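Please, does this match?
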Amino acid sequence: MIVKNEERYIRDCLESIKDVADQLVIIDTGCTDDTIRIAGEYNAEVHSFKWIDDFSAARNASIKYARNNWILWLDADERLKPESIPLLKEIISRNQHPVIYNVQIENETNDAADAQLSTAYRLFPNNYGIGFKNRIHEQLTVSKNLKIKSVNSQIILKHLGYALQGQEKNNKDLRNLFLLEKMVGENPADAYTHYTYGQQLSLVDNYQKALIHFEKAYALKQFDKALSGSLLNVLSETYLKLNNLDKALYFARKSIQNIPNQTSAYYMVYRICEKKQEFSEAIAAIDSIIKNNHNKDQREIATDVVIDNLKLVYTKAVLHEKNQDYKNALQCWKELLTKQPAKEELYNQPIAIALNQGFVEIAQDLLEKLIVLNPSRTDALDALGTLYIKRIDFKNAILVFEKLNQIIPDNQQVIRKLAGLYLKTGSEAQAAALLS
């Protein structure tokens, strides 16, 4: 690891790795907080390194101190997920040979997706001359003479760094922009440099400039299939941000054509089609995301998004309603309520749809279930009682309005309705007593 003022993150990082790492090597690039003291609690070896605006230089310095057969590199804001520990132990127990392992990274974000998935080469054998390149967003580099293969693994890291806010985010953005501008100047013909610079520009909402660098990366045609899919998706998103919906849809469709088993491009199609008010196409895109969620371990794209299926079903319900397909909207709400029957707020919209569209039996069923959850919901009691009246079910209507009268005894509207029901059922004395 290389660190600078990571006291907020480093303990959880080291805690996640302590049971599998034989040696903890930390490069201090100028800490002034409690980072190094916390590292000492885990018996980490700390070595100082003068910062020279180059993450790869610092990472290459860290390799010099590694004594064991395998190297796993992390950032302080990353955690090895517990379920990955047995798999990591199994990999490093094998005989050493020149193989580098791709791991999966779950990036927490501040956007609509639950997380963004990416992959990166993080585990590699020591003493084979493998090192790092690039000032920032560093990547492994291998000697041309070394015959090495890469293997995808199911090791998962959780990354918190994309969910920063406030001054912490501003400081990181400024640092990254500075380093990436240097990289672009040093490597103007490198597609990955333009791609990462474009990503950082997007993070600070400079979409017009980001687009220039994404287009340059696209024109250079240096990416493999997996990274090309990610590039097409960020091109789509950038054009969407700039309100060029046709271009946005073109690149999203192209990404799907190249890599069907993903969610990001379909998510883009949903967003674009919703904005174009093409709701049927947006719903079809959501269905494809749900389908591909079941195959997340087989995705071929370098970066992807993770969206919870219940969020997707909720989105479908909203889209069906916008498309005036109320029957399918209610079907989606029914699915949500099957999974979360105790979530009171989920009943409001389907009840409104059912009442407005005349789905009387559905409305009655939903109102009865809602009242079981919250017997004091006066709006639900009033709606159910009124529904019973419309269905000529005066007996149940009386029971509902009697309960409502107990909750709000001075409400004249409730009193009049209840008195009217007593009269309809031949209970004149009860009506008179109520109105007296």
DSSP finds 19 helices and eleven strands in the chain. The two ends are 81 Å apart (CA to CA).
